[in-house]
What we know:
The protein is 86% helix and 0% strand. It has helices spanning 5-29, 38-67, 71-106, 113-144, 147-168. Helix 3 packs antiparallel against helix 4 (113-144).
Amino acid sequence: MNMTKPTKTFFSTIAVCIVIAFASVASVNASDNDVALDAPKEHKGHQHQENKHKGHKQKMKRMDKALSLSEEQQVQIKAIKTQAKEQHQILQASMQEFKIAEKKLLQTKKFDEQAFNTLYDTYQPIFKQLALIRVKDKHAVFNVLTTEQQDKWLKMIEHKKGQTKKRRG
C-alpha cells in the first residue's frame, strides 16, 4: 500500500492516541489500593538515584570543561551542590507524599478538580521552598564564577533554551 507522508503521519498519530487511550483506561481500572503499582517505582528509585548522581557528575564535568574552572571553584561549587542536595532531601519525603496523593486522585473514576486544587494548595509552600533552593543554588554557583565565566555560562544557558525551543517547536 503506497501512502503519502501526511497519511502516514495521520495514521501514526491515531496509533499513538489509541495506545495512550488504552494505557489510561488500564490505569483508571487499577484499584486505588493496588500496592503492586508502587512496587516497580520503588525498585527503580535506587537506579534512578544512581543515574541522577551520574548526571550531576557529567554536568559538573561539562561545566568544568566549558568554563575552565579552577580547583578552588570546583571545590566551592561541589560544596554548594552538596548543601543544596541536603536541603532538597529534607523536603523529598513531602514531595513523595504529594505524588502518592496525586496518583490516588488520578486513579479515580471521575477526576475531582477541587480535591486536586486543595492538595496542590496544601503543598504549595514545599514547592516554593524547592524553587528557592534551586535559585539560591544557581545564584551561589554564578557568584563563584569570574565575570568572563559568568558571561560564557549565560550564553550557554541561552543556547540551551534555544535548542529546547527547536525540539519542541
